[in-house]
Write a structure and sequence with these properties.
The chain is α/β, with parallel strands linked by helices. α2 links the parallel β4 (about 40-45) and β5. It contains ten helices and 13 strands. Helices cover about 35% and strands about 25% of the residues. It has helices at about 5-15, 50-55, 85-95, 105, 115-120, 150-160, 190-195, 210-215, 225-230, 230-245, and strands spanning about 5, 30-35, 40, 40-45, 65-70, 100, 125-135, 135-145, 165-170, 175-180, 200, 220, 250. The strands form three sheets. The chain has a six-stranded mixed sheet with strand order 7-8-10-11-12-9. A five-stranded mixed sheet has the order 2-6-5-4-13, sandwiched between helices. It has a two-stranded antiparallel ribbon with strand order 1-3.
Length: about 260
């Protein structure tokens, strides 16, 4: 049975605390494109890219889909509806596809957030917060399973996420207290060190983060921005299926970054 778009949006806005959690202005969290008012299924994706949108719009069951994404449509700011933006919107509107985006609100969510879900999937124990984003807790830390080396942790990540992680071996050979901030969290290595962590998992980081990890004594694992942020939208879509009975699927479009 279809569900009213308004009902889904109201629930998501409250569940994710869309109006409370700080973010970049161009994130535009919440409903980004509405449809005629009913949702018959959900497609989860990391990015509202042109390839993803055209891929979803090309499906036979595309009409009345809710596209649930982590990175929304408007990261490039206030731009004319021309070129690729026109093509995205034209594909969405022609197939009555709605778009809902959640960036930082999904990263830090205590149940379906990227950070906590990845930490749980890795088997980290005694989970707790570390680090802040604009005054709100964002990272998750926990104890690594006994006997797991930093290289072993990389192998687990690669197999679980379908990625090829880069290890910067600045810390001890055995993974102990591990922190997770998915996506572009490489500049938070110093925060991981201040929190007493020996290993830090994120998606990517700039050049200087190699020296940050080596000189601060932290194992930094860059497992890919895309790869580490698959897990949140999938967990959120699964949650919506349980609550509203809407079938969902994941649209994979890995970038390798």
């Amino acid at each position: 049975m279809p569900v009213a778009l308004r009902e889904l949006v109201e629930y998501l806005d409250g569940y994710l605390r869309i109006r409370e959690v700080p973010d970049e202005p161009t994130a535009v969290n919440g409903l980004q494109v509405e449809n005629s008012g009913a949702v018959s299924r959900i497609v989860a994706a990391v990015d509202a890219s042109l390839a993803t949108i055209e891929g979803v719009a090309g499906q036979s069951e595309a009409r009345s889909t809710l596209l649930l994404v982590h990175h929304g449509l408007f990261w490039d700011g206030n731009q004319p509806v021309t070129g690729r933006r026109y093509r995205k919107l034209q594909s969405l509107l022609s197939k009555d596809i709605a778009v809902y985006s959640a960036h930082i609100p999904l990263d830090l969510h205590a149940e379906v957030g990227n950070n906590v879900v990845l930490a749980r999937q890795l088997g980290l124990e005694q989970l707790g917060p570390f680090d802040l984003y604009r005054g709100v807790p964002i990272g998750v830390q926990g104890e690594s399973p006994a006997g797991l080396t930093r290289e072993g942790l990389v192998e687990v990540l690669d197999q679980m996420l379908g990625t090829r992680s880069r290890l910067i071996p600045g810390g001890p050979p055995m993974a102990g207290r591990v922190g997770v901030i998915t996506g572009g969290g490489g500049n938070r290595i110093s925060a991981a060190r201040q929190a007493g962590l020996d290993t830090f998992i994120t998606g990517e980081g700039p050049h200087h983060t190699f020296f940050d990890a080596m000189e601060l004594g932290v194992n930094a694992i860059f497992a890919g921005h895309y790869a580490t942020e698959q897990v949140g939208v999938q967990a959120l879509a699964e949650h919506l299926e349980e609550r509203f009975g809407l079938a969902w699927e994941f649209h994979a479009h890995p970038t390798g970054l």
